[in-house]
Amino acid sequence: MRNKCKRLHESITHLTFERFVYYSRMSSIRNLPKKKATLKDVARTANVSIATVSRVLNNSPSVTKKTKDHVNDVIQKLSFSPSPMARALNSGRTRTVGALVPTLDHAIFSKFLEALEKRLSDHKHSLVISTTNGSPKTEFEQATALLNMGAEALIVSGKQRSLEFDALVKRFNVPVIITSYYDPNADYPSIGYDNAAISKLALNHFIEKQYNTVAVIHGPTTDNDRTRDRLEGIKSDNRFSDVNYMEVALSIDGGCQATRRIISSGQRPDVIFCLSDVLALGVLFELQRNNISIPNDVAVMGFDNLEWAEHTVPPLTSIELSVKDMGKHAADEVCSFLNTGKPIDSVKLSGHLLKRETT
Fold first, then answer.
1. pLDDT 10s digits, 176-223
2. Residue 298: how many CB atoms within 10 A of its CB?
3. CATH fold label, 39-91
């Protein structure tokens, strides 16, 4: 009897353990994350071929709107997300655009890149950004890295390119767009400004205000054709009796240093024209530090109309450049070329004088 009870107890214990293991396994299975939906899952659920799903993902015009809407609805319900690598392998495209800018330290480039990235995203393209520090050598190296990553196009700042850069893009056979500079005769399509002509907006304003003597403060001209053209626009105008030029670092401190030199010279100009709002901010600080009234003693004008320009004391007169429009145009043109082969058009953008209280 005792042995029977012992065997019965062992059987119950064994059965209980087996049930425990079974339920534990089932619980673990239920708690496992759901398997990620595949292209085949989407095709089966939508009752279409895998090729049709692929064409929908690549926005092919050969798919009807009804089918496209149906497949996209299934994609959303299944939370399907195609692998970027798989898409690139299937389509032979990365849908990536590379942008090369001198620096990210200045808001003018940040505003441009923000607009560029948003518009590229609308076109289902991605943006990869590299900085060059204004160096042709660095630009070539970064362009090489971007193209090796699979960038399908390059967007660059300014007209000036190195021979190595030209040879590189020719070898990879990718389109290039110049920004911040307009020249319909340039080697690449350009979307930007006639910088020399835009400088005339300031000079016309100075004539209107009856300013005769002008101090022009600007950043480095080496490898910066935009600044060189703005200066050329000023130098080609003979309406002023005295124009003094000062090259400094493109920073607030650069503006302060130039202003100290002006003050110590004992020869105050009627107006200080800064080819960047960043420099103009340093000028305002230094003039106010020396109790020099703006604009009664010296007028000040900037360039770029950065977001804070209207909030300085007094509010800064500046030239506004439509950098957001530049980003949108660049994205539209490059994506149109990549998707349809339509030649990239050069686009001339305008600048606008914003009269405020420093002049």
1. 999 999 999 999 999 999 999 999 999 999 999 999 999 999 999 988
2. 21
3. 434 Repressor (Amino-terminal Domain) (1.10.260)
Length of the chain: 359
Structure tokens at 316: 């800064």
Check: CB of residue 68 under 8 Å from CB of residue 57.
no
d(CA 178, CA 226): 12
- Enter the pTM of the model: 0.72
CATH, domain range 98-194+325-350 = 3.40.50.2300
φ/ψ of residue 106, rounded to 5: -110, 135
Asked if residue 36 has pLDDT above 60, the reply is yes
Q: Which two tokens stand for residue 270?
A: 């009627």
Q: Where are the domains of the chain?
A: 1-31, 39-91, 98-194+325-350, 195-323
Q: Could you please state the CATH topology (level 3) that the domain comprising 195-323 is classified under.
A: Rossmann fold (3.40.50)
- Mean pLDDT of all residues in 145-162: 92
